[in-house]
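Issue 218. Parser rejects a valid record. Input:
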Amino acid sequence: MNLPPKMLSGYRVLDITQFVAGPTCTRLLAEAGADVIKVELAPFGDRSRFQGLKPRDPAYKNTSQSTYFFQQNHSKRSLALDLKHEKSRAILRRLAAGCDVLVENFTPGVMKRAGLGYDELKAINPKLIMCSISFAGQTGPLSDKPGFDYIAQAFAGITGVIGEPDGKPAQVPVAIGDASTGVAAAMAVGFALLHRERTGEGQFIEASLLDTYFHMHEANVPKVALRGDSFVPKREGSLHPNGGPVGVFDCGRGEFLVICALAHQWPQMVRALGRPELENDPRFASARARSDNNKAVAEIVEAWLQRFPSREAAIAALEQERIPCAPVLTLNDAMAQPHLVERGTVRRVDDPQIGQFAIPGNPVRFSAWQPSDQLKADLLGQHNEDILREIGLSDAEIENLYAEKVLVQDRALRAGRERA
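Output the parser choked on:
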């Protein structure tokens, strides 16, 4: 069967990123069909190659593969070189001249000092779209500060509202800011490509973890702006401050349930509770009143939940009144959900070195094409020769680059090349 070309087929992306945010952006572009050249830095490549699980087979124990790297960087071609060497920087300039997009996530200023800033590359390729991903942006008082996901979370006022009211602030133990920044950057690149199709103009894009996290505030920014310090969002623990009831509720037996009943669903909620008198109780008659009496609402709901023989029975009673709710699952339980498995949200992959395992699937679906079921992640420098030949280097020149340690490569690939 002849499948239609993917949406970004024919576009080439130069990916000079590592860890999560940058690789997430370029991975999404690669899945959409772009030819993504992942530039990895000597001597060891993307630092995520040393995170996650490594191959168990002793024959592969020294390879540069890991589950973490696979998840963030499948569908790309690896070019591994020493950026400190001028010949490497010359190679990157030649590649940028023929690329549509360049994505990087160095500390602001690093690319410019290497002669690879947007102004320099724009002179070579006026249609280039360059996206720089950083902790806090390319300008401003925090722009030169080193930082990662949790640092941006704290600066954005997110960490301060997570945790129990009488305890210390807590962190969300997943890289929400990194992943969301990568998605936002991929979106911005798509917009810029559309702009270029219409105008012929390339452009420079900034994406930052701090900006992305601040964008996640759903309702409180205007409140603070209007009320000043008379309104300071507080930690509410497992209950949402809007009353609802919205939050995490104890079903007993060590099981928990999330209920998200919005203000207009309070009549449905009291029907589910079998407590019609609560609808007009002055403590709960309005969203503001329920917010002020959040704990009292929670106590009523939890007492009701704990009368059921099982969490599933409580869910059935809530769903009969169309109250949005869900069991609080472990990741293990979530990965076994038939819904997530059927939709490919839990995505099975097979790596020659690591074996079979699961990674998250693409977060969006398209009607024009289906995601590949044969994903592959390169070993370090696996496509060095192919990529350099494409920009006109001869085999002799490539061998000289290896000899001068401009290029690096996974040990297994290097041994195979030497045998050949």
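Fixed in the parser; the record now loads. The chain has a mean pLDDT of 94.
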